[in-house]
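Field reference: sequence -> structure
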Amino acid sequence: MNLIKSMIFIPIIAMLLSLPILSAISLVLAIILMLVMDRNIQWIKSKIYLIKNKFQKDININYDNKNNY
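Structure field:
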């Protein structure tokens, strides 16, 4: 996330250096990239959560089967 935050400050510095068109384009690109990265991180977290739950259920089923015998 530090890389993405630094990408938002680069266009602000560019604006101060009077490059308004380039800075506006790069600011828009940085915001789009930040939104995409945030969605991907949420998606990865949800997948990890689902996989963890599946393994936990398998472990519980195996444990119950061992206790039955």
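Note: The helical segments are 2-16, 20-68.
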